[in-house]
Amino acid sequence: MIRFEDVTKRYPDGTTAVDGLSFEVSEGELVTLVGPSGCGKTTTMMMVNRLTEPTSGRILLGGEDVAAVDPVRLRRRIGYVIQQVGLFPHRTVLDNTATVPALIGWKKARARARAAELLDLVGLDPATYGQRYPEQLSGGQRQRVGVARALAADPPVLLMDEPFGAVDPVVRVQLQDEFLRMQAAVRKTVLMVTHDIEEAVRMGDRIAVYGQGRIEQFDTPGAVLGSPATPYVASFVGADRGLKRLSVTEIEPGDLEQPPVARLDEPAGRAAAELRAQGARWAVVLDHGGELHGWVGIDDLGTDGPVGSHAHRMNAWVPVGAPLKQAFGVMLQHDAGWVAVLDGARFLGVLTPAKLHEALRRSVDADALGVPRDEVRFDSVADA
Ligand SMILES: Nc1ncnc2c1ncn2[C@@H]1O[C@H](COP(=O)(O)OP(=O)(O)OP(=O)(O)O)[C@@H](O)[C@H]1O
User: Fold this and answer.
1) Which of 81-90, 93-102, 358-367, 370-379 has the highest mean pLDDT?
2) Which residues, including other chains, have CB under 8 Å from residue 144's CB and lie 6 or more apart?
3) d(CA 5, CA 180)
4) In its keyword annotation, does this UniProt entry include ATP-binding (predicted)?
5) Whether the CB of 84 sits within 6 Å of ligand 1
6) Which pLDDT value is given to residue 61?
7) What's the CA gap between 7 and 185, in Å, rounded?
8) Which tens digit of pLDDT belongs to each residue from 254-306?
9) Mutation to probe ligand 1, out of 11, 48, 191, 236 (largest number of atoms < 8 A from CB)
10) At the N or C end, where does the chain have fewer CB atoms within 10 A?
11) Which of 18, 34, 39, 159, when mutated, tests ligand 1's pocket best, judged by the most ligand atoms within 8 Å of its CB?
12) How far is ligand 1, taken at its centre, from the CA of residue 44, in Å?
């Protein structure tokens, strides 16, 4: 969808901002550009919508060389969100949002209806906020209006330059989450600049890590964290990249342990005998419908009654596909040595700290070898 072919930008004063850049962003993909201040991220973006022109090389948008497209026409196909938002102070939030549809000749009522729909989409009730002026909003709300405005004419491409830069860390995470939710629905092709590796990892389908005017690595968050291509990338992503990786590595069924399972209505004596036969100390307890109820230890199980009268309720579970970090969080929250993993309501198995570590190691190796995670042979901690 967006393709850079050997693009170089030298400013008139001789500064080389971008040097021989080649990369491609697929349709519906969100690529984050991350790197230190002055490495050429903003220049890269501004060449896409022709706010500045490359010195050499080509940029293609949907196969068309942007140099051949009239800049005004081009910018209608590209939403642009910047940190300072740039809302018009004397226009209401609704009219700010409707700017581009109005410019391209939509009737006022239609443009406003679209603006209201978009304010809703970014989490601002149009009835409450539509008639306010930008100065009557918080920083985070203004940022949302900026995103709504960029989406108003339904452009296939969005350029976002530090879109969540001006707000505090808590609001920032909220805005990131909201944007990801929205992006899952609208699937724009997005280039997003950030200097924050956490944000790049959270938001990007792929990340371009910039050195001085060049991309040092262009890959998935998992690969950038797991196998930094150069010492520069390794130092940029930081020593805690194992921790960051927890947030991008998803739980797969192959990561799970299968402890014994007892049913709530099963006789306790029988469950105890099975545990003893397997040499196990505890079992996961499921209810009649196969949903997680909790757990029971072998010492809790007498011979009387059903398992249910001895079991402990525990609601520690995560859905399959959730990040490992979430599973770790749930374990800590419940002070438990395991967390159940469910597919819908169905119990798949449990993740333990050892399994979690194994999943993390396996995913690092899988990225390094370029194979799926379940093809990585691994000597677990217990085997080592
Ligand atoms: N109009 C200009 N004239 C001359 N040099 C410029 C101009 N705009 C940017 N530069 C220089 O080009 C280099 C890249 O700038 P750019 O704004 O693309 O970096 P950036 O990675 O977006 O930085 P930041 O994160 O600080 O915004 C910098 O050295 C900058 O000083």
Assistant:
1) 93-102
2) 119, 122, 123, 124, 175, 178
3) 28
4) yes
5) no
6) 95
7) 32
8) 889 999 999 999 999 999 999 999 999 999 999 988 888 999 999 888 878 89
9) 11
10) C
11) 39
12) 10
Residue 106 pLDDT level (bands cut at 50, 70, 90): confident
Angle, CA 99 vertex, CA 182 and CA 163 arms, to 5°: 45
Answer left, alpha or beta for residue 208, where phi above 0 means left and psi between -120 and 50 means alpha: beta
Q: Are strands 206-210 and 189-194 parallel, antiparallel or unpaired?
A: unpaired
Query: With 60 as the cut, is the pLDDT of residue 88 above it?
Result: yes
Identity of the amino acid at 141: Q
Instruction: Give me the domains of the chain, ranges plus CATH numbers.
Output: 2-248 (3.40.50.300), 253-361 (3.10.580.10)
Assess whether the C-beta atom of 9 lies below 6 angstroms from ligand 1. Answer: no
DSSP per residue over 175-215, as a string? HHHHHHHHHHHH--EEEEEES-HHHHHHH-SEEEEESSSSE
pLDDT tens for residues 3-33? 999 999 999 999 999 999 999 999 999 999 9
Alpha carbon distances (Å) from 188 to 76, 83, 98, 102, 285: 14, 19, 19, 21, 44
Closest CA to 233 of 245, 247, 248, 223: 223
If you take atom 25 of ligand 1, which residue's CA is the nearest one?
37
As separate numbers, helices (DSSP H) first and strands (DSSP E) second, the chain gives 15, 17
Is the pTM for the entire model greater than 0.90?
Answer: no
Tell me, what's the pLDDT at 162? 87
Tokens encoding 119: 């304010």
Query: 204: how many CB neighbours lie within 10 A of its CB?
Result: 23
Q: Is the CB of 41 under 6 A from ligand 1?
A: yes
